[in-house]
Design a protein that fits this description.
The protein has 173 residues and is α/β, with parallel strands linked by helices. It is 64% helix and 10% strand. It has 2 domains: 118 residues, 5'-nuclease (Rossmann fold), CATH 3.40.50.1010; 48 residues, no CATH class. The longest helix has 19 residues.
């Protein structure tokens, strides 16, 4: 089963479009780091995230002192990344996981280090493939997300919307 390590921006995206439970129900191991969890400060988002954690849908990785030392070294070597970014990167690398982030700097570093990395649109696509999200709903949610999060990969999003509209149209025929 694939291990997905979530950065804050992906979790926030999923919370903003009301798909956190559906995403966490995918047949993957879902984890984030303690530093990411503390980065989410909005009261409603914190409550919803705590519910996912309480239900066992999302695990929070606590970094040991030794791991924090390595994470800090990683951040010193890559000052363009935050300590929180490095915690996601470290745990994905250490545990052979997939980095889930929309942060351009973290994505570039993960790709440079040959780690698999994806963002929220990929997760929506996975939900469509798994059948937990109808293509019509995926279009609606991605369009909503695009109106909220201007940092999404615009071309990739438009391609997904087009593909999902075709899927929805073929299901009606």
């Amino acid at each position: 089963m694939r291990l997905l390590i979530h950065d804050a921006n992906v979790l926030i995206d999923l919370l903003d479009i009301g798909l956190i439970d559906e995403a966490m129900a995918l047949p993957c191991v879902m984890e984030t780091t303690d530093l990411v969890r503390y980065e989410i400060v909005d009261a409603e988002q914190t409550r919803a995230l705590s519910e996912c954690i309480g239900k066992g849908l999302l695990a929070v990785l606590s970094s040991s002192i030794e791991q924090m030392s390595k994470i800090a070294e990683m951040q010193s070597a890559s000052p363009q990344l935050t300590l929180v970014d490095c915690s996601v990167f470290f745990h994905a690398q250490d545990r052979d996981g997939v980095v889930l982030s929309g942060d351009g700097r973290l994505r570039k570093e993960a790709e440079r280090q040959k780690l698999e990395v994806h963002s929220t649109p990929w997760l929506l696509s996975l939900m469509v493939i798994e059948g937990s999200l109808a293509p019509e709903a995926a279009v609606e949610r991605l369009e909503l997300l695009m109106s909220i999060n201007k940092r999404l990969p615009h071309r990739e999003c438009l391609k997904l919307i087009e593909a999902w509209k075709k899927m929805a149209g073929s299901k009606k025929s």
